[in-house]
Amino acid sequence: MKMPWINRETSWIAFNNRVLFEATDPFNPPLERLKFLAIVSSNLEEFFMIRVAVLKRQLKREDFRDPSGENAKTILSSIIKEVKSMLKNQYHTFYKLCEELRKNGITILTKSEDILPHYEKLKEFFDDTLFPLLTPLSVSQTHPFPTLHSGKLYMLIELSPPPDHILTEKPSLSFIEIPVVVGRFYEVQNSVFVPIEMIIKMFLPKIYPGYTIQHCGFLRITRDADYEHQIDGAFDIVSSVEKNIKHFHKREAVKLEITEGISPPTIKTFCDHHNLSEDLVFSLPSILNLKDLMQIYETCDRPDSKLKPLEPVLPRILTQKRNLFSLIRQKEILLFHPYQSYDPVLWFLESAATDPDVIAIKQTLYRTSNDSRIIFWLTKAAENGKYVSVVDELTARFDEQRNIHWARKLQDAGAHVTYGIAQLKTHAKALLIVRREREGIRRYVHLATGNYNETTARLYSDFSFFTTNEEICSEVNQMFNLLTGFSLAPTWKKLAIAPFNLRQRFLSLIRREIQNAKAGLKAHIRAKMNSLSDETIIRALYEASQAGVRIELIVRGICCLIPGIKGISDNITVKSIVGRYLEHSRIYFFYNNGIEEYYLSSADWMMRNLDRRIELLFPIEEPSLKAMLDTILTYQLKDTANSWILKSNGKYEALGTRDSKHHDSFSEIYTHLQQLSEKNT
Description:
Layout: H1 8-24, H2 30-58, H3 72-103, E1 107-108, H4 112-115, H5 119-130, E2 136-139, E3 153-160, E4 173-177, E5 185-189, E6 192-195, H6 196-202, H7 204-207, E7 212-223, H8 237-246, E8 253-259, H9 264-273, E9 281-284, H10 294-299, H11 316-319, H12 325-330, E10 333-337, H13 343-354, E11 358-365, H14 373-383, E12 387-392, H15 400-413, E13 416-418, E14 425-426, E15 430-437, E16 440-448, E17 460-467, H16 470-485, E18 496-498, H17 502-518, E19 524-529, H18 535-547, E20 550-555, E21 572-577, E22 582-583, E23 586-590, E24 597-601, H19 607-611, E25 613-620, H20 623-638, E26 643-646, E27 652-654, H21 665-679
Parallel strand pairs: 1-6, 8-9, 11-12, 12-13, 14-25, 17-22, 19-20, 20-21
Antiparallel strand pairs: 2-4, 3-4, 3-7, 5-6, 7-8, 10-17, 11-15, 15-16, 16-17, 18-25, 19-23, 21-26, 23-24, 24-25, 26-27
């Protein structure tokens, strides 16, 4: 019997459809719905760059099957059909939302006839700003087909040269890259936005004087971004990453988006040139790349059309002083961002950089923000003569260039920068500070479920944990020795580190619940994560369900497990929460016959996290902090306003009770943490 299994790609599409639902839900103000439309497009772009690229390569493997037995061809055909359906719904939603936004005083003009009344102002903007940035790229005998960059927006123009054209070459096909460096949307008047490609289209005769324009449309190409860095020597990682970035525009095409106005023969020519099958061509009815709608969301100062922001809570104990060392010595601190402020993480590093008693700072970096205070204080610490060691994950997808920039800045300041272990991405989030004190050397540790990134800390829900627990500090130190010196620790007791013992730790925790259930004892697992797709873990969960273990899962995105199947998974429930914040934290709870255990982690239950990355699992043992985690999980499991339930048929069903009796975990958790902060002295 085949294991019950939802294909990973199918599950991801279901997740993105849940995000799309947020763009249709009148519970969300109109600009919030516009934001979700943008997120759908951003998610879909990355899906093609990584997952579809992988599937295209797997087409060449006749032996490839997913755990349900499907081959790559069947999977790819299925998801193309589902993506086309999703895009149809997305653009239908976009049109309806444009109408609603207009009623709220916000207008997005997408038709040529609608922008004509603004001709004079648009002409001025075109002449002064856009025209100097435009470079027509025509195809001819001496001008080969241009290399189009992944994700960029292009205008494709089919031309007829004038009869009196004096040049030998008479191009019939030309491209213009749309210069979104000036912003994708031009605000022609207050809260009235025009896509800049529509402005360029209006004034095309100025770019091609004398030519007859036969057809004109827009296109975007998406290229394969799933590549491995070839490291031939100890110092090749930076050059390898830079080489891949430099040659990204030459990688294989995995998707083409087009608008109306491009003739079928030209589309075929384009596909032939890029070795792209026409089933990966998506013809869209309106403007391309809706993720650029985020510009309108961010620049529109219309609080009435957005959710009221939740001001991050700062626990009272942390308002007394910014230097956290004495506070952490007294008690461990657990924060849940963005409900609670991320400032203490920055204060912690600032204190370390400026405190004369701090000797050393060690930190992992995966994704950082553009204007990173984390980098600022690490640089300042190195300049102040402290030993600073940073493990910088250069291969963090789509952040490679930024990470190289920060690595060089840190090195210039005197920090010691390493890049982890070959073939293993360093995804663990850890900060170790070594301080000279009256009693001797003391170590302070910050561990997290999310990146050291002040920007995403305002958008993603993640935990921060501060401790001086000697066992945890010692094992974190051992982890850094592993990352910088390849020194394997003899044992890991408090922590579990992938790929060394994290998979085994999770399986042993699940099996302990199985043994307790078989012994007639109460057995219970609660787990919250981004994705669940590891085959071995899923088999263990099915076994636990059959043994009588109660399993409650909160899985935001991909979930390959099917709950509620009689005799297999009828003791398992799965819900997905999509709403105000991106649910990013990982919490793992095991009842353990009443001696309850809580863990936080950087890892999901995915093969890549357990086998191909450096990941970290750490326990939360202080009773009040365990109670905080229990309350947060309970609110989320009770949530009805933002929740989807995965049914035994593999489909998600919205609870959809956004009424006076609904449970909104976002607001309930925020209220709880406000109250907790007042009590926390």
